[in-house]
Write a structure and sequence with these properties.
The chain is mainly beta. The chain folds into 3 domains: 33 residues, no CATH class; 101 residues, Immunoglobulins (Immunoglobulin-like, Sandwich); 49 residues. Helices cover 4% and strands 32% of the residues. The chain has 2 helices and 12 strands. The strands form 2 sheets. Strands 1, 2, 3, 4, 5, 6, 7, 8 and 9 form a 9-stranded mixed beta sheet that branches. Strand 10 and strand 11 form a beta hairpin. The longest helix is centred in the C-terminal third of the chain and has 4 residues. The protein is elongated, with a radius of gyration of 24 Å.
């Protein structure tokens, strides 16, 4: 795809011209530009777990002689975390597996995604694509809270492992029994381990 003045484009390159450009015909207007396509599918990525995700797109340039790389870039807490695409075609981009983390004490954190090719050209994103990072541990104060669908939505697949709320792929859940939200009866009953008298007495 030619991304400069049309006079510099070479034979065989895809040329997209402006809506109001009186010269030329064919691929005219932004609908022919490389762009991400919004879908009803949402991506939920647990923190500290290597995860990949895919993006639906259109008009993606695929000429291997001109495309060196595609990079998927997540903007997390004003910082950018980028990974290369492991596969792409005209309508699909697969972003390679990577661990992500964020500092905020939030169960879910929506972060924007952009795609860049050859380290300089951004693919249009008319629908503002994002993925959702999440931390099960935010609701890890107790087994019952971790497994409560009101506190921790079931689609996040969090569970109780020993003394932590996490996903089954985590190290702690690999070394401890994973208790899911259908097994709340397996949560240990609370135990009173200490009693302290208050300085305020009421009669």
């Amino acid at each position: 795809m030619c991304t400069y003045e049309s006079s510099s484009c070479q034979t065989g390159e895809t040329v997209v011209i402006g809506e109001n450009n009186p010269v030329g015909s064919g691929n005219k207007g932004k609908r022919f530009c490389p762009q991400l396509v919004g879908t009803s599918e949402s991506f939920f990525i647990p923190v500290n777990i290597p995860s990949s995700f895919s993006l639906v797109a259109r008009n993606i340039p695929t000429d291997q002689t001109k495309i060196r790389s595609f990079d998927c870039i997540l903007r997390i807490n004003e910082a950018e975390a980028g990974v290369q695409s492991t596969f792409f075609n005209e309508s699909y981009i697969l972003c390679e597996s990577k661990e992500y983390m964020y500092a905020d004490d939030l169960l879910q954190n929506n972060v924007s995604v952009s795609v860049q090719w050859n380290g300089q050209h951004y693919i249009d994103d008319p629908t503002d694509t994002y993925v959702t990072l999440y931390k099960c541990s935010v609701n890890g104060g107790s087994c019952s809270r971790c497994l409560s669908p009101e506190a921790t939505p079931s689609f996040l697949n969090c569970g109780w492992c020993g003394t932590e709320c996490n996903v089954i792929e985590s190290d702690v859940c690999q070394s401890n029994r994973f208790v899911n939200q259908n097994e709340t009866n397996l949560c240990s009953a609370p135990a009173i381990t200490d009693v302290r008298l208050s300085h305020n007495y009421f009669f």
